[in-house]
Amino acid sequence: MTFGPKTTSLDCGLGHACQFCPEETHCTLDKPLHNKRLIENRLEEIGHIIVVLANKGGVGKSTVSANLSAGLARLGFRVGVADADIHGPNQSRFFGFAGGRTRTTYDGLKTLAFEADGISHPVKVGSLAFMLEDDSTPVVWRDAYKHDFIHHLIGSFDWGSLDYLVVDMPPGTGNELITLCDMLEGSDVSAVLVTTPQAVAQMDSLKAGRFCNERGLPVIGAVENMAGIVCPHCSEEFHLFPDAGLGEALEGLGISRLAAIPLAPELAMGSDTGQPVVTERPESAVARAFEPLIEAVAATGRAGFDAAVAHTLGEVFQTNLEDEALRTALADLPAGQQEELGDEIAALLSQETGRLRDMTGRNGAE
Ligand SMILES: Nc1ncnc2c1ncn2[C@@H]1O[C@H](COP(=O)(O)OP(=O)(O)OP(=O)(O)O)[C@@H](O)[C@H]1O
Ligand code: SF4
Ligand SMILES: [Mg+2]
């Protein structure tokens, strides 16, 4: 990806959309083209996008997004979390950035970096909340702006290279989700559904499941949140709601139940204090309840990494095979340029080999 202040005849190369640009009023470049390229460039750098959704509000989408992101980061992945909830952005608070602000740079809007013990790559958090005057400012946006916002969220934030971008959706399968699905068509994207055990929430999550099936959006599985309570005295788990047949209903849609997260005060407290429970108390029962979800998402990514490794290895070999041709081509250049280009190619190959070693090392370590 080539963001930065490089100006070409076709594109400025800036890492943010024109709406954030001080040059916007007098710039004569092709702005729609710039905004389109911006998203294409970002998506090229993101390995796998996980959309966390539910048809219903308050079932735990943001809680699951935050703990899934932190859990993936604990496994060594480079993770970003994009808060797509325009009306109730929560990720800033869940990662301890309440009141945090972003700034515009050549490379785009700065994400805020969440660090914790056991995480080698900080989780990059991008949220509309970083652009509001204060956290209680209500956002009243028309649909056209919402459309733009989803584009800015993915395109204008400086996500850098990521293994996963987790997108925390607002409730429902409306405008934001449709815009996102349209934008991500052709990208490596999957969904995680969140539901609670009550029959009414289940019906709603089934609607979300049907939406995914109709849109061809692969669903990794569903998370049943607030599934029961762990007794603080005897550690016995008991259920608050009668079993409304979630497992069977999901099965009918070809969706598996990945994890059951208990109703746990430390989870709510973790959200309030900005410390996801999977990094703050990784040994606790509630943190461990997230493990099957995190593992399932990691497994989809690993399949992608293996394919990427195989593909890139193929390209590296191809380059080696063409060494002879390269030498012949270089021989036609003036002496100074031969050396310069040779060095550039060597540096690129060494960088690529390092990246492959890192990726395979990380996969092998898990
Ligand atoms: N398993 C749980 N145990 C205890 N509290 C929980 C649990 N899951 C979520 N909560 C709390 O419930 C509230 C709602 O959760 P959350 O914000 O994650 O839901 P949401 O689906 O993202 O809501 P919205 O639709 O408003 O975006 C939060 O205060 C959160 O801390
Ligand atoms: S207005 Fe858009 S195209 Fe022009 S310099 Fe700014 S970001 Fe680039
Ligand atoms: Mg939410």
Automatic annotation (TrEMBL):
GO terms for cellular component: cytosol. GO terms for biological process: iron-sulfur cluster assembly. Coiled coil: none annotated. InterPro entries: Mrp/NBP35_ATP-bd, P-loop_NTPase, YlxH/NBP35. Signal peptide: none annotated. The keyword Cell inner membrane does not apply. Keywords: ATP-binding, Iron, Iron-sulfur, Metal-binding, Nucleotide-binding. CDD domains: Mrp_NBP35 (cd02037). One of its GO terms (molecular function) is ATP-dependent FeS chaperone activity. This is Iron-sulfur cluster carrier protein.
